[in-house]
Amino acid sequence: MIYPQNAVDKLGFTEIKALIKAYCLSEMGRQMVDKIQPMHQFDQINKFMRQTYEFKEILLNDSPLPIEHLYPIRALAEKARVEGVFLTEEEFFHVLLSLKTVFAVIRYFNDRNGHYPNLEALFEHLPIEKGIVNAIERVIDAKGKIKPNASSLLSEIITNIAKAEQEARKRIDHVFKSAQGNGWTADGNLTVRDGRLCIPLLAENKRKLKGFIHDESATGQTVFIEPEEVFHLNNKVRDLEFDKRREVIRILIELTDTLRPNIPLLLAYHGLLSKLDFVRAKALFAIELEADMPQLSKEAAVELINARHPLLMLNFKKEKQTVVPLNVKIDNQQRVIVVSGPNAGGKSVAMKTIGLLQIMAQAGLLIPADESSTIGVFKQFFADIGDDQSIESDLSTYSAHLSKMKYFTEHANGKTLVLIDEFGTGTDPQFGGPIAEAVLEVLNRKKIRGVVTTHYSNLKNFANATEGLENASMLFDNAAMHPLYILEIGKPGSSYAFEIAQKIGLPTEVLQAAKQKIGAQQKRVDTLLVDLEREKKTILDTKRLVEKRETALNKLQQDTEALQRYLDENKKTILKQAKLEAQEIIKNANRLVENTISEIKESKADRERTKAARQHLQQELERHQLNEPKTKGATVANNQEIHVGDWVKIIESGNVAQVLEVAKDNLILAMGDLRSVVKRKRVEKVATKEVPKEIRKSHSAMVTEELTGFYPELDVRGMRTEDALQAIEKHLDKAIMLGFPSLKVIHGKGDGILRKMIRDYLRKYSQVNRMEDEHADRGGDGITYVYLN
């Protein structure tokens, strides 16, 4: 329930409906827009809002819905319901095009079964009755005309008409040429008079040719005669035309009789087309508003995050300006917000934004606010906005306000949203303030929810001392002397009357006189509010700076932790590889020792043989220790500059690898499919020509294969979060290794959980520079672009 009825006009909801109507393709869609009203059933609100959201997704991210022809077939179905009445060719053509649109829409959603459940519910259990289309197509052609072969009799009549017209034309051409040869005709060719083809004759020759005179020229010198022999042929054509018309009517009556049993189904099809046009218009308007679907709640509460007034936003968009967003919360604890602050500071706009967005949401519309906003359900909307004085009802401005207050106090309850602008004004402030306070006290006892704007100090004090009421103020820039249009909850605001008067240029003596006239207590209160607001702004600026630095510090800490994890993971790989190499060396050494002992035993301790075996063992051991003395030489070699793409040899193992990345004193190396992190001092640079050809070819082929098979785009829609993150990690590693500048991750919108998890995960990578949403026309925040360093 909305009270008074003109509240929807004052809040701007009527204008919203007019803007939505402009997007409708049909009159039936516009009629549905006219019927939009706030709903009070949670399930209905949820269904209507989700239908709009799903259609918005289709418009932004899917193929166009095939709704080219939308005709109001309800009236045609009702006409066909009457026995003996028949639809015209054009009306049947409209039915045919509308049915084809219905069937195309049903096929569209069947191909996407489950993707748009709320839109699919619009035609649930609605059959595709092709028999109607087939019956119409047998009679009506692609241009909306009766087919010549719609019946055998019609086909015969059309053939006879063509023959008779051809014969009549031949005859009149023959007579015309003969008259011309005799010099009887006037200047000009054959002409049509009264629907008949006639010969123009000079008036003095009209007796020389038998026929029927249809007309004469303005001067009377020329007459237009239809020859007698042609007259009978044309009459025959006319009779055949009447026969044709009777046959066409018979066919249309027969087709209408065929259509009549399906009238209930036609009405259902009409309903579907109307709803589709209606939902489409709401979705297009939501795109224009950059609106989203908030969280829905069954409680009588509202929390708006980054909300904008729709009409103000559209006006500002034309002027290439932006609207300052509104953040506010009204719930069971913080039931009524008492907003104060300077004139023209945005108090009324803030209040109207809350009221209008709440009505829009309960009417099933998306709202221009963050998707994390919460919208509850109110059963009543009471508003006192503007001047409602009435000469007819003998009501002054204040009387009109009091009449509304009377209704509010009698009928409001915990499910009522009350909006009162400039509460208590219109009479002597000495009496208006206490009356307004008393009304607010009654409304608060009824636990209503609402927003009140005021300049009265007693209401600010009352809100400060009363549970359920909360002060709020519109911020004001003291230095620049202009409003900031930001709503701040928790403290009242000053009216800045003297500051604004001073800025406007009111004489100093006037201001001084005014200050002397106001009470000392009021002056102290107003000065205190101004000082508090100034200090609050300073604290707010400092807080923002601290938060900015804290964010940078957290990011630096995350980068450090990520690097440490990366190093720890690679340390395990290097240690594992070293252990495998050590095990292999030990195996070879054991085998060599065993062979030496066996050889000594076989030679039965022959001195020369024993000496030779020991020398061989010593040489083998020294060969495995040759890397040790080269450390100094390697250190010299390490002084050479190493770049990405260079080939190096690991000093301890002698393995050759290629440099993928240089990170301070660490190198990330590629050895076949293996990636390893090695200290710079543990490798020495080698020339490319010294690298074995098989290693170079293998590495080149692998890189080429990965480059040709890799595409910097990944679709993780439908995946579980863990699987999606694992897939992204692999794809990101390849993108970094192959040197791609960016990566496109398609995760969809949904509830935004997957998007948040992915972005939080990617922030841990130091190689990730920044992340951005795709353009709104190509997917918006359903796609994340990851830009790499």
Provide structural commentary:
With 789 residues, this protein is α/β, with parallel strands linked by helices. It folds into 4 domains: 43-178 and 234-289, MutS, DNA mismatch repair protein, Chain A, domain 3; 295-517, 3-Layer(aba) Sandwich (Rossmann fold); 564-698, SH3 type barrels (Roll); 710-788, 2-Layer Sandwich (Ribosomal Protein S8, Chain: A, domain 1), CATH 3.30.1370. Helices cover 52% and strands 16% of the residues. It contains 24 helices and 24 strands. A 7-stranded mixed beta sheet has the order 1-11-12-13-9-14-15, sandwiched between helices. The chain is flat, with a radius of gyration of 44 Å. The two termini are 57 Å apart. Residues 389-394 and 626-638 have low confidence and may be disordered. Residues 714-789 form the Smr domain. GO terms for molecular function: endonuclease activity. Keywords: ATP-binding, Coiled coil, DNA-binding, Endonuclease, Hydrolase, Nuclease, Nucleotide-binding, RNA-binding, rRNA-binding. It is an enzyme of class 3 (hydrolase). Homodimer. Binds to stalled ribosomes, contacting rRNA.
